[in-house]
TrEMBL record:
Protein name as it appears in the record: Protein prenyltransferase alpha subunit repeat-containing protein 1 isoform X5
Signal peptide: none
Highest taxon, organism lineage: Eukaryota
Stated family: Belongs to the protein prenyltransferase subunit alpha family.
Statement: the UniProt record of this protein carries the keyword Transit peptide: no
GO-annotated cellular components: CAAX-protein geranylgeranyltransferase complex; protein farnesyltransferase complex
Keyword annotations from UniProtKB, A to Z: Prenyltransferase, Repeat, Transferase
Native species: Sesamum indicum (Oriental sesame)
Record has Mitochondrion as a keyword: no
Length: 336
């Protein structure tokens, strides 16, 4: 297939326009050009009449003069043609590095000159800084979608967001990293960014437990589509320290069904071990607000042993099951 002539900057502007028009895009994919026709046919053959499709839910392909499709956007889903990934990435990287260079220079000059500037100059400098920060955030957003482990882009977002720590902005960061993970579920940078955001929220967030619950559900969803995803389960283990006693117990109960049909996935059993250890820690701290007593915890531990024993008999030779049983046996007598 011959690649049509295009302006990468125009291509990048198209991407920015889509992202700005729909801040709730929740799924990203890189699509071969041959798949666009099938996607549009599937949309048009849906049972819903075309006349009833709103502007928000209607397919929005972006094309050039040669009718080659660049993007597919529908119902908060975004597809990007693989044919144009390289020029789009190069344009996004160049735009970001240029904006970040201006931001670094302006930030350095502000530190040196703040004491010498009058009020008008300070206001002008602050206004210019806001403009440059907006550009950095805009171009870093596109860049991390195209290159999920571009550390400088993620770090620049942390630097700017940390200056104000506005809750709505932090939620935007969670949405962006979730969008990245929808396409790259094993991206360590994206998972690390989510942990940073939650840490920033922890001290000033009234609904932190709700956010933690949604995080746990996100890991469960991604674990279904991305097998043996150690980074996702490691993130879920990290979340345990932010859970209430009742959440820990609920997570232990809810993760059992998933573990029963994924007996080869050691990460899930490691997560259950982390939950049990958190229960021990809560008991040692005498934290009984909605928690378990020592006798109740002993019963939970015995039930876990019996359950793993049943799985071992059902699935002979599964190493993850034996490792979990070994953990349970070693710590059986160490509860408070």
């Amino acid at each position: 297939m011959t690649r049509p002539a295009l302006n990468p900057c125009h291509l990048l502007n198209h991407l920015h326009a889509i992202l700005d028009s729909d801040p709730y895009i929740d799924e990203l994919g890189f699509i071969h050009p041959s798949q666009f026709a099938a996607l549009n046919e599937e949309l048009h053959s849906s049972s819903e009449p075309a006349s009833l499709l709103s502007a928000e839910t209607r397919s929005n392909p972006v094309r050039d003069t040669s009718s080659h499709t660049f993007f597919w956007h529908n119902e908060h889903k975004l597809g990007i043609s693989t044919l144009f990934l390289v020029p789009l990435y190069n344009a996004a990287k160049d735009a970001f590095m240029d904006a970040y260079k201006r931001y670094s220079m302006l930030r350095g000059s502000q530190v040196k000159k703040d004491e010498k500037l009058d009020d008008n100059s300070l206001n002008s400098s602050a206004s210019l800084m806001d403009i440059v920060e907006t550009q950095v955030m805009k171009h870093s957003r596109a860049l991390v979608l195209l290159s999920c482990d571009f550390g400088t882009a993620w770090n620049s977002r942390k630097l700017i967001v940390s200056k104000k720590l506005v809750f709505s902005v932090l939620m935007d960061e969670l949405r962006l990293s979730a969008l990245v993970l929808s396409c790259s579920p094993k991206s360590e940078r994206a998972w690390s960014h989510r942990r940073w955001v939650i840490k920033m929220m922890a001290g000033n967030c009234s609904n932190l437990q709700e956010i933690v619950e949604r995080e746990s559900e996100l890991v469960k969803t991604l674990a279904e589509s991305s097998k043996m995803n150690y980074r996702a389960w490691n993130h879920r283990c990290w979340l345990v320290s932010y859970m209430s006693d009742s959440q820990v117990l609920l997570e232990l109960q809810c993760s059992r069904d998933w573990a029963e049909v994924h007996v080869a996935d050691n990460s899930c059993f490691h997560y259950r071990a982390r939950l049990l250890l958190q229960m021990i820690e809560n008991l040692r701290r005498n934290n009984k607000r909605g928690g378990l007593s020592g006798a109740e915890f002993h019963q939970v531990w015995e039930e876990e042993l019996d359950w793993v024993g049943m799985l071992i008999r059902r699935y002979v030779g599964r190493e993850a099951l034996w490792l979990h049983r070994r953990f349970l046996s070693l710590f059986l007598h160490n509860y408070p």
